[in-house]
Amino acid sequence: MSTPLVSLTDAGISYQQLDALKSVTMHLNQGEVMGLFGHNGAGKTTMMKLILGVISPSRGTVEVMGMAPDSKEAWHCRSKVGYLPENVSFYEQLTGLEVLTYFAKLKGFNKKQAIDLLEQVGITHAMKRQVKTYSKGMRQRLGLAQAFIGEPKLLLLDEPTVGLDPIATRDFYKTVDQLKSNGSSVILCSHVLPGVEQHIDRAMILSTGQLLAMGTLADLRQQAALPVAIKPFGLNGSVANDSKLNGFLTANCPNTLLVPEQEKMKVLRQLISHEGLDDLQVETANLEQVYQHFLSEHESGEKK
Amino acid sequence: MRQILTVANKEFHDGLRNRWLISITLIFALLSIGLTYFGAAASGAVGVASLSTTVASLASLAVFLIPLIALLLSYDSFVGEQESGTLLLLLTYPLSKSQLLLGKFIGQGSIIALATLLGFGSSAILLYFQLGDIQVLTSFSVFIVSAILLGLSFTAISYLISLSVSEKSKAAGFALITWFLFALAFDLALLALLVGVEQGITQAGLTQLMMLNPADIFRLVNLSGLDSSDVNGALAVAINASLSQGQLFSALLAWVALPLSIAIFIFKRKKL
Predict the structure, then answer these.
(1) Is residue A18 part of a domain?
(2) CA separation (Å) from A293 to A135, B148, B156, B168?
C-alpha cells in the first residue's frame, strides 16, 4: 500500500469552453474497488479516458503505476490495464473466439488464454459463432472477457452489468471480488445499481465534471446525514403519544420514524420498552438515496 | 512489429472473409482476359490484339477501377471502428496509432496487391503463351507494379478520408467525390486548359500538372512506352515530353508515402 496505483491531482480537462472534468483529486490503492457514479455526461467516461492515457489532462497530473499514462514510458503498463468501454460492438463478422484472440494477441497472449477467458465468462458454447448472432448479454460477456485478458492490475469497467441477467450479474461480481483478492484494483463506473454496494470499497459521485463526494459508503452516509427509517409494528398509535418518539414522525409517512443515525439506538431502546411491539424494520439509507441526496444538494447549490 | 503484423493479419483475413480478394481478382481477370481476346474487335477481328493495344486498354480500365476499389475497401477503416467503439478500445492497448495504421495498410494493401497480381497476371500468362514474346512479361510487370502502387496510393488516400470525418456515410460520400475528381474531373480540366487557353501551358508544364494526380502518373507509366496511335487526349501531348520510367515510379511511390504520412499525422492529433 506504499504508493497508490492510480492518483489524480487536480486533474481536469476542457474542450474549448466546456469543462468536461473540473479539478479532481483521487487516489486508488492496490486491491481497492472504487465505484464511480454519476448520470450521463457527468464526466465518468472522460475520467476513465484520462486514466487510460487516451487523452491528456489540460491541467493537473494523472499517474498510473507511478507514470503518466499518456507518456511513452507507460507503454508497457498498458498490457496490465483492462478496459470495458460503455458502447462497443465488436467485429460482427468475426466469431467470438476470433475477436478475443485478436485482442489477446495485441496484449501478447495467445489463443489458449482466449479460450480460457471465454470459459470464465461462460460463452464457450458460442465461441465459434459470429458475434452478430450474439445477444446483448453475450456481447457484454465477450467485452468482459476482453477486459480480463492478462489478469490486469487495474480494471476500468464502464457500465459492466448492462444487459446481464441476474445470474450473469452475480457471476460478474464474483469475478470482481476474486480479482480484488488477487490484488487488482477496479474502477466500476455506473449509474447507481442495486447490488453494487457490497462489492465496492469506496464510492465517488460526479456531476457535470465535478467531484461531489468521495469516501466509503459509511462516510458518505454520515456526510449526507440521511435519517434511518424505523418502522415499528403493533404499537397502534402509541408512538404518536410518546413524547420521546413523536418528534420523529413526519406527515407523509405516519407509521415510520425518520431518525438521525446518532439517535438510532436511543429510539430503538425506547421502542422496545413499549409492550405491544411485535416487529421492527430498520432501514439505513442505501447508495441510491445517498446519491440522490448529493445530486439534489448540488443542484440546489447551483441555483443559489 | 509483432503488433503491426497482428493487425495486418486481421485485416487481411477480413478481406478474405468478405470475399473482397476473390471478387476483385475475378473482376480483374475477367476484364483483362476479355480485353486481351476481344480488344481487337473494334478493328473488326476477334483474336489476340497487339500487345500495345491490350496494355493501353487495360490501363484505361484499371485507372478507373483500381482507385474505386481501393477507396471502397478502405474508406471505413477508421471511421467504422470509431463508430463501433473498437478504435477507442484498441488505443488503450499497447498499440501505437502508427502501428495500427500501418498494420491496416499492410493488411488491406496486400489484398489489393494480391488481387491485382492474380487478376492481371492471369491474362499476362495467357498472352505470353499466345504471342510467345518475352516483351509481354516485361510490359505486364510494369503494368502490374504500377497498378499495385496506384491501389496503395488510393488506400492511403482513403485513410485520410476515414480519419478526417466522424460518420461512415460522410466517408463514403467523400470517397466517391475523391474518385470522381482524380479519375474523371482532373483530366477534363486538363483538357479544357489545353484546348481553351491558347499558349496557356507548355508541354513540360502539362506533365508537371499531371504529377498532381496518381491516376495520371499511372497512365503515363503505361502508355509512354506504346505507339502513340493507341493513345489520345491530353496524354498524347504529355507523352512527348515524358519523364523517365524511374521518375514516374518515384512519383507514384511518393503518392503512396505522402498520404500515408499525412494520415499518421492526422491520426496522432485526432481527439477521441
Answers:
(1) yes
(2) 36, 64, 53, 42
